[in-house]
Amino acid sequence: MTTISLQVNGKTVSGEVEPRTLLVEFLREGLGLTGTHVGCDTSQCGACTVHVDGQQVKSCTMFAVEAEGAAVTTIEGLADGDQLTPLQQAFQDHHGLQCGFCTPGMVMSLSTLLEETPKPTEQQIRDHLQGNICRCTGYHNIVKAALAASGQL
What does pTM read for this prediction? Predict the structure, then answer.
């Protein structure tokens, strides 16, 4: 077992993990942050997307020990209390979800895009989401929500 310490959603946390423990497992099982989903175990679906030191990361591809000292943001850390981010509100307003399983990963991924490209085109949004799979919506309302959050609707 190895003790790790990192910042998660602005709070210092630590825990004992086996070196093979994935970051997604530490977040979900070690910290109880179940908004980060495990969808495929092969890094194909993007449901486990989080931000590590400001970078978009599929947390099923990273060992928890690799996050030692890092700042990790999960879907639970995006909103300010009950105040949703514009992107989260746009997902709600434009029905950018159906079953909701992929939604945390979609929001985390799109928040990276909107930070890097505040006014993306529809094609840029679709290209950025290539690593995120939604089996319900056909992406139309997800793209619509991203456009709304960027002030383009």
Answer: 0.94
